[in-house]
């Protein structure tokens, strides 16, 4: 028999912070960049920690470092990682979750209710076309493919081989597009599949450097252009 303990908000946040410290140390060891993003960044600026009603931690990483991080976590085998790169037939989204494998949680990720563990979300910063009109077309195309891909999981999770092949084709199209432009040669960047839609597209200069900010009882990296980032979203 395995004894189960119900985790309260404090315990869940403690585990999330432990995962985040692990990510921070792994990035420092291997020379990878990471930044707080979304509500986590706003919480650091406004509350020096979690927004009172927030329940997760959001991190963003340049695409080249993002892919390396997945490999490092898998090799280290301390936490589970769930992403389209290591679970291409199962993952229905294009960011990663770093998961504490010793916990179980029911997660509502619209439009899916899934069982996982306590986790943090890590989003890839991707390169974008130079011209804004090209970026708009690129943005609309990727968002459309992502919607079709997500909807294919709504039709049936237990797919036959024909449906699996259909999903793989959609997944490969999205991955090919989000890897198409070199992050370090792009003037603009963002995680264009985020809930912020076009607002997430901003100058890469926002991420030209990082600064340490308090978050609860630790410090985490924020983009040096955090004020511009928060104003835009």
Give your account of this protein's structure.
- The structure is a single chain.
- This protein has six helices and eleven strands.
- With 233 residues, the protein is of the alpha+beta class.
- The strands form three sheets. Strands 1, 2, 3, 4, 7, 8 and 9 form a seven-stranded mixed sheet that branches. It has a two-stranded antiparallel ribbon with strand order 5-6. It has a two-stranded antiparallel sheet with strand order 10-11.
- The longest helix is centred in the middle third of the chain and has 24 residues, at 132-155.
Q: Helix and strand layout, with pairings?
A:
Layout: H1 9-30, E1 35-36, H2 38-47, E2 58-62, H3 63-76, E3 80-82, E4 96-99, E5 105-109, E6 112-116, E7 119-127, H4 132-155, H5 161-178, E8 188-190, E9 202-203, E10 210-215, E11 218-223, H6 226-232
Parallel strand pairs: 2-7
Antiparallel strand pairs: 1-2, 3-4, 4-7, 5-6, 7-8, 8-9, 10-11
Helix pairs in contact: 4-5
Reading the helices and strands in chain order gives: HEHEHEEEEEHHEEEEH
Low-confidence runs (pLDDT<50, min 5 residues)? none
Helix proportion range: 40-55%
Structural category is alpha+beta
According to DSSP, the number of beta strands is 11
Outline of the structure:
α4 packs antiparallel against α5.
What labels describe this entry?
single chain, 233 residues, alpha+beta, seven-stranded mixed sheet, two-stranded antiparallel ribbon
